[in-house]
Input
Amino acid sequence: APEKRRLVVNGKPGEWYRYIRDIRFNPQDLRWTYEAQRDDQWYVVTPEKIYEAFDGVAGGAWRNLLISEDGSVVAFPVKRGGKQWISLAGRPVGKSHDEIVEFALSPSGQVAYALWNRGKPLFFLPGRDPLGPFECTGRIVFSRNSRHVAFAACHAGRYQIVLDGVLGPLFDEVSDPVFAPDGHVACAVRNGEESFVVVGQERGPSYHRVSDVQFSASGVLAYTASDGQGMSIVVDGERGPVFTRVSPPAFGPDRRTVAYQAWEGEQSFVVLNDWRSPPFDWPLGDDVMYAPIVFSPNGSRVSYGGQEGEQHFVGLGDQRGTLFDG
Output
């Protein structure tokens, strides 16, 4: 097939390739990185350099292409002749392996990864001996200061958080870990019929189920919680109004206020503090895609997507825009 694709950034066209995929922009300075194919050869393309990815960018890892927080370092798994390894700024990290299943890049440019070892994941963390093998793996995450790294793993049918190589207590279920700005790690866990959030060594109140655990940049903890009454957003331990369903919380520019989509019966609306948008149609199912919510710069209003029957609109506060087909 002829090479007919290229990336154009700010009006400046890049080189032609057969395929381009996985385009990433660094939010700090909009530096871009992407994967590209020419003939049978794959490359990772950055503004400064084109990295050869040999037979291809390995597709086994959950995330194929990662950029450091300042945009100066790019990491990706590559493969050649049936073997895979992590490339960090064009240099291999560790030895080659049969299949890399997960990897992460810290804000300071350190790499952690997991690979299959006789059908079970084995973890390689910076400056530590390999950990495992475990029976399953979750997402590897670094703290903002790059000093801590954590992941969820399981053993004998139970789950735990591994923080800096130290195995935590076992539960019936655990979510992927989330780091607070101060380096404390949090996760949602289930033991028997109760679920709760654990932050460091502290556990929160019990619910039937908790999920969507996240911290704001200022350290405010928010998550969704459900019980026999219904579903709510919990912010810093305070439970909000109860609804049929709520979306994951979205933090505003003050890093404390949250907005979210909620349902009462079949009607949906957006909630911001004591304000609710006019109700709109939004199909509710197990695989529902939630409406996008965007805060105004001062955080006093939100814009959101909604539906009226089969048509869509963009709402701003109490006003809704023109209906369109999709």
Observations:
- The longest strand covers residues 19-25.
